[in-house]
Amino acid sequence: MLHTLMSSPFQCDYALLLRMLQPGDDLLLMQDGVLAGLTDNLLLPQLLDSPARLWVLAEDVAARGLDAQISSKIAVIDYNDFVMLTVKQQQQMPW
User: Fold this and answer.
1) Which pLDDT belongs to residue 95?
2) How confident is the model at residue 71 (pLDDT cuts 50, 70, 90)?
3) For the chain, which domains are there?
4) How does residue 80 score in pLDDT terms, banded at 50, 70 and 90?
5) C-alpha–C-alpha distance, residues 63 and 51, integer Å
6) In which order are the strands placed within the sheet that holds 53-57?
């Protein structure tokens, strides 16, 4: 399943999101969801311990001026890669 976190991790049920992530899932941080990928975010360790592959949308990171603050443990992708994720994962869950 492709999970897309579009809101700040402080404005969604982040604990439920973490519980829902399964092996083989992908989680894309986009829009304000990119805040979950900040290196100084207290919630980041839980996210990195999840069984899902983690991605962040480069355009949303750049739009917020956070390029240097995103964890190096999260892969930065563009819209073409986002399309490939949607093709790969037949189901999507927006957060």
Assistant:
1) 95
2) very high
3) 2-94 (3.40.1260.10)
4) very high
5) 28
6) 75-77, 53-57, 26-29, 2-5, 92-94
